[in-house]
């Protein structure tokens, strides 16, 4: 009995001590961060909130999940100017009095997490020195919102399930999504394909409706045949030194079978290849071509292959040229003049009703820009478009002090398509979070715009997909969009997975 009494006394003392220690901690609530100058602000707000709250907790400071009962409220901000960023935080007591301020700066996204750690430690030390635990912040009840007056505006209707296309109204500024097609009546999706695929291009189409597609990942080129499902017909693999950046196709020799133009980096040099479907196999036509490739239908006309070279110190060197096949040789002809920041992977051209020519590009920050034939900037989008995780690296020791990386990472851009009707089609990958050179996208749509003489107006966009769009094919003849989507990212023990989805555009 004495032992039981002694044990109870010890437990009571321990619980009392623990309660005292817990009560002695200063309870701090970190609100969402304000984010300026960074992509995907919504995700970054909560990510920084969680990151900073975990770094703020110490023996004296306890991070809590709610402002109710908190001794201190902390508000933070993240401001980015190019690669340079600043993290700022301010702590206020129950009366709204500022008790601590702190900031950290960095010159690259690789420094973000260490900067958050230093900021949390510094602010926690100031809070512990100036605040006594137990001062509870009681939030004031919010005033009830006034009833909204009746509106004359018609709210956009909800899109019908299964529709692949949302069309903007042409008679009103109030957009009403319309159910123009249903997946069951026209759309199609393949089975799961192994790997995080990065490129797709059309192959030969048969009279019975069977179609072939060239599909690539970083280490292989595949030939698929589409009927009721997607059948793998042939596959070729490349050496570990070689990295596939993309695949495009065109029938340059005019024999009825499009060739696959595969852009390949061998180490830090271009060593691209040309392949063609030969029955149920793939046959190599050319190798070690020092060109980037992209299939483009300038102004919505004939689809051709264009190429650009790499310089010793420039990632894209010289003019963009049309690739022409003469016998067994490939030559660069018919240079294309581009605006100052235009290069092979970020441009196309369209014409207006009067026949005037314009160039549209996606700039390095992701904005659509329209230039006149004279190179004058006419319009710039408010939203960002494009977005790709496909990249290659080149040694860049001259900037290692500022970048912290001995290599320069070059990300390719999504293709811009111009339809025969003059519409500009461009993808939009969203949900991006970037730390250093690591990119991640979670959802995507494809948009079509028409030039109204002053700006690009939206004509339609596809229903948002919850997957990253790696590449796509716009088929004007069939009025279809063939999308290559990554449904599962590659992991340490998993190759990832992709699908091919056909979306009707009528």
Query: What's the helix count?
Result: 4
Biggest sheet details? 6 strands, mixed
Strand residue content: 35-45%
C-alpha termini separation? 85 Å
Query: Which spans of ≥5 residues are poorly predicted at pLDDT below 50?
Result: 10-23, 135-161, 171-185
Name of the CATH first level of the largest domain:
Mainly Beta
Rounded to an integer in angstroms, the radius of gyration calculated over CA atoms is 28 Å
**Overall 3D form:** elongated
User: What class, by secondary structure content?
Assistant: mainly beta
Please provide the count of β strands. Answer: 35
| Residue-averaged pLDDT | 84
Count of the separate structural domains: 2
CATH topology of the largest domain: Neuraminidase
- Give the % helix: 10-25%
CATH architectural label of the largest domain: 6 Propeller
Organism: Geobacter metallireducens
Protein name: VCBS repeat-containing protein
Pfam families: FG-GAP_3
Signal peptide: 1-23
Layout of helices and strands, plus pairs?
Layout: H1 2-24, E1 26-30, E2 34-36, H2 41-56, E3 61-64, E4 72-81, E5 84-92, E6 98-106, H3 112-130, E7 165-167, E8 188-189, E9 193-194, E10 199-205, E11 211-217, E12 220-226, E13 230-237, E14 242-250, E15 259-266, E16 269-270, E17 272-278, E18 281-289, E19 292-296, E20 304-309, E21 317-326, E22 329-336, E23 347-351, E24 357-362, E25 367-372, E26 377-384, E27 391-395, H4 400-403, E28 407-411, E29 417-418, E30 424-430, E31 443-451, E32 456-462, E33 468-475, E34 480-488, E35 497-504
Parallel strand pairs: 1-3, 1-4, 2-4
Antiparallel strand pairs: 4-5, 5-6, 7-32, 8-35, 9-35, 10-11, 11-12, 12-13, 14-15, 15-16, 15-17, 17-18, 19-20, 20-21, 21-22, 23-24, 24-25, 25-26, 27-28, 29-30, 30-31, 31-32, 33-34, 34-35
Helix pairs in contact: 2-3
